Amino acid sequence: MQGTPREALADHLRTSLEKADVTVDVLADRTKVPRATIRALLEEPISGIVPERVYLRGHLWVLAKELDLDRDTVLALFDAAYPEAPTTEDLAGAPRFGTGSVAVAAGLATVALLAVVLAFANALG
Questions:
Q1: CATH, domain range 5-81
Q2: More confident residue, 22 or 123
Q3: CB 41 within 8 A of CB 63
Q4: Distances from the Cα of 74 to the Cαs of 3, 52, 83, 107, in angstroms?
Q5: Contact 57, 82 (CB under 8 A)
Q6: Are 81 and 5 in contact (CB under 8 A)?
Q7: Which residues contact 30 (CB under 8 A, 6 or more apart)?
Q8: CA-CA distance, 90 to 61, in Å (whole number)?
Q9: Lowest mean pLDDT across 41-45, 85-89, 104-108
């Protein structure tokens, strides 16, 4: 296995594909998991967009089932490679916006409101 958790997951999947004598195209056709997603999990360069973590994890579950892999092991590798995003409890007490962001938002809202009022006044007059 390689050094990073993503490389470890990719190696595990690549070895399983070779052992099953299945190509990415065949696996994608069987599971309906997009080829780009499979290639991303294999750490291959892709030109597509990788889905959010929850969908990526679900796709991996389907791939593991199709390849007859121990899903707990594969998902543990995935969780190490793609740690969960912080939850709202983790972020409790953290400021959502800096004071500069609020000032910019208020200024933009004022400009937008003024534009609406002027457009309405022009329409009437």
A1: 1.10.260.40
A2: 22
A3: yes
A4: 17, 18, 14, 49
A5: yes
A6: yes
A7: 22, 66
A8: 27
A9: 85-89
Q: Is pLDDT at 65 greater than 70 in this prediction?
A: yes
Burial of 109 (0-12, 13-18, 19+ CB in 10 A): exposed
Neighbours of 31 (CB within 10 A): 16
Is residue 64 within 8 A of residue 77, CB to CB? The reply is no
State the chain's maximal CA–CA distance in angstroms: 77
Dist. CA 106–CA 47, nearest whole Å: 38
Element at 9 (helix H, strand E): helix 5-20
In degrees and rounded to multiples of 5, residue 53 shows phi and psi of: -55, -45
pLDDT single digits (tens) 69-105 = 999 999 999 999 988 765 555 545 545 555 566 677 7
Rounded Cα distance between 58 and 75, Å, is 10
Q: Tokens at residue 30, please? A: 């069987």
Give the start-to-end residue ranges of the domains of the chain.
Answer: 5-81
Q: What type of residue sits at position 35? A: R
Check residue 50 and give its pLDDT: 76
